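Field: sequence (string)
Field: structure_tokens (string)

Example rows 1 and 2, in order.
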Amino acid sequence: MSDPVKEMKARIAELEAAMEHADNKNEALYAKIQSHEANIKLRAEHVERLQAELAKHKWVSVDDRLPEEGQNVLIYGPERNNGVPFSRVWDWKSRNAFNTHWKPISLPTPQDTEGGK
């Protein structure tokens, strides 16, 4: 005949072991979740930096804002230069009905070019 107390103690020991195993798994899963959350945060920050950089290079309507005098810009007008953007230094002559959009450009410095040494 089996001893019910011994069986109950054995079953309790099994359940305690299963609970400990589950706790260990939960801790490991929690650590993974924290790692993934940190990774997501880093990626979100990277996306924000990229979006800010991209915003610097978008076309700006001359109706919204004009560039500063003397600023190097890429100019676009659908009825100008066959619709092909062209670069120039912005000045008062740039303000006309043909130029509809612009975006800033940076020209290479002598240090940027191979012959500038």
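Row 2 begins here:
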Amino acid sequence: MTGLSWHITSAGLVETLRPRMPPTVASTPLTAFFAGLMISLPSLREYVLIVQDRMQVDVLRVENPGKPERLEKATDCIRLDSIEFSMTLGDLYD
């Protein structure tokens, strides 16, 4: 799919949005998309959407699929329990 970069583990999916993404992809409601992924990939625990051209990361978790966690500050920390990973946005965007 144009405008996306993917990294998949057995329990997580990380997607990077490139600048000037097609509007149909960027406007897809995240919670509906995540619900579809959980059906297709039953081992999926977390879905991470990284915006490339500004500091913004959305994390959806299977424990709370209707409430994405939005991170926008350099001191905010991305925590992915499924792969025992954490990193600040400042380090990610450095």
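free_text_note (row 2): Confidence is low (pLDDT under 50) at residues 1-6, 22-27.
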